[in-house]
Specification:
flat, 3-stranded antiparallel sheet, 3 strands, 50% helix, alpha+beta
Length: 139
Amino acid sequence: MKRFATKTVLGPTLLGLSLLGLTACGTPQEQCVNRATRDMRVVDRLIAETEGNIDRGYAYEEVTVYQTEWVDCTPRVAAGQPAPPPQMCLDDVPRTERKAVAIDLVAEAAKLDSLKAKRAQQSRAASSAIAACKSQYPE
């Protein structure tokens, strides 16, 4: 088994994707408010992640691990041609795993303070944009 560590930012969660799908279906006012508060939701997610890191005492990192597996590699044929016999080949298949990594708790606490300050700033800025959305798209 080959192991290649690739540090990646954790992607959107299933909940985040479902919320994204719901926001696309909202009223014009809701869509406008969602656009105006998009960055706030990102910062909220980062705050929650940082608080979790501090509570646990460590963070998670995604690592891609390649495992050699038998996979179907039967050649594709054009329509109307006879199907060839099935063929199996060995291939390296990527798997994403989460592993715990050490963090500097003091730096993580400073990051949390910075994120909370940014969130407060975004909230103040978004309040006027939300008011504009409500006046532009009354429900």
